[in-house]
Design goal:
By secondary structure, the chain is α/β, with parallel strands linked by helices. 27% of the residues lie in helices and 25% in strands. It contains eight helices and 15 strands. The strands form two sheets. A ten-stranded mixed β-sheet has the order 8-7-9-6-10-11-12-13-14-15. Helix 5 crosses helix 7, helix 5 crosses helix 8 and helix 7 packs antiparallel against helix 8. The protein starts with a strand and ends in a 19-residue tail after the last helix.
Length: 310
């Protein structure tokens, strides 16, 4: 059934991606935000999604409202009007937690690297089968017929707690967001609570001592470079065009893989993606084929040519 959505703060990276995804699924989408230009609005404008100034009139009776986490009654007139008049709205993460129940969902969490890993997983899976996805660089794709949904799970203010994915990757745990988290242990507890909500398979970087402490109700698969992990990347070869490496799973060789990116961290991101998709039953030949064409995400190692200079 087609719905109409209004986004309060549509230029936010997660909000813009969600707006694009719902638009592509055939829903009516509009949003409001400040006048200042943000890089996320280009995709919205290209899709023909209306970006309006904040105004109480934007909140019509037949519109489902999604509110960005940056906006509150004391700094946004639409939120204040909604609260004063009993108009219901969901925060981005609350909406997403309900939305993903319609799919086989695959999340990517972690203090660092989650946007790049989400982008890689979304790229590979959407080239294999119909997939909707939300990436933290403001990229979203929606399909009404998609069976799979790939998304980035943000730990800030425990926003990932409404999410109950079938599969999830956790790239690392670090003391980040000190404006919210009180200590590394506080961060660990948040990720550990999220991990318990994964139902089919949890894939964690096995050389992160905090991740080795995580407990879950689903099977845990460790990935890394060293012995003692389930998925091990080895025989690394790095060149000016990217990286190649082999992956084994509990002593079984899965073959050689190539990515057009650099650094051991990107090899780990790819190993996590390979491990998840292998466990979920996908053909590794297809995974191998589409890893090679992953061009990266926005604002991460982006090549720019200006007046003939790279």
């Amino acid at each position: 059934m087609t719905k109409t959505y209004h986004f309060i703060g549509i230029k936010g990276s997660g909000m813009s991606a969600l707006a694009l995804m719902l638009h592509q699924m055939g829903h009516q989408v509009q949003g409001s935000d400040v006048e200042k230009y943000y890089f996320t609005q280009r995709s919205l404008e290209q899709a023909g999604i209306k970006i309006l100034p904040f105004d109480e009139k934007n909140l019509q009776a037949d519109v489902e409202v999604i509110a960005g986490n940056a906006f509150r009654p004391d700094n946004n007139l639409e939120i204040a009007y909604a609260d004063a008049n009993g108009i219901s709205y969901k925060r981005y993460h609350e909406f997403l937690g309900i939305f993903m129940r319609n799919f086989v969902s695959m999340g990517v969490a972690g203090a660092h690297g989650k946007t790049s890993t989400t982008g890689m997983l979304a790229h590979v899976l959407s080239n294999i089968t119909d997939t909707s996805y939300l990436i933290g660089d403001g990229t979203g794709r929606g399909s009404a017929n998609a069976k799979y949904f790939v998304f980035e799970a943000d730990e800030y203010e425990r926003h990932f707690m409404p999410y109950h994915p079938e599969y999830s990757i956790i790239t690392n745990i670090d003391f980040d967001h000190p404006d919210y988290f009180t200590s590394l242990e506080d961060v660990f507890n948040a990720f550990n609570d999220y991990a318990k909500q994964v139902s089919k398979g949890l894939f964690v970087y096995g050389e992160d001592k905090e991740l080795r402490r995580v407990t879950a109700n689903a099977p845990i698969y460790y990935y890394g470079f060293k012995e003692g992990n389930d998925f091990i990347a080895h025989d690394l070869l790095r060149s000016t065009t990217g990286s190649s490496f082999k992956v084994s799973f509990r002593g079984q060789e899965l073959g050689e893989f190539k990515i057009p990116s650099f650094g051991r961290h990107n090899i780990m991101n790819a190993t996590a993606v390979i491990g998840l998709l292998y466990t979920a039953g996908f053909d590794l030949n297809l995974v191998r084929e589409h890893l090679v064409t992953f061009g990266g995400v926005k604002r991460r190692f982006t090549e720019k040519v200006v007046n003939g200079t790279t």
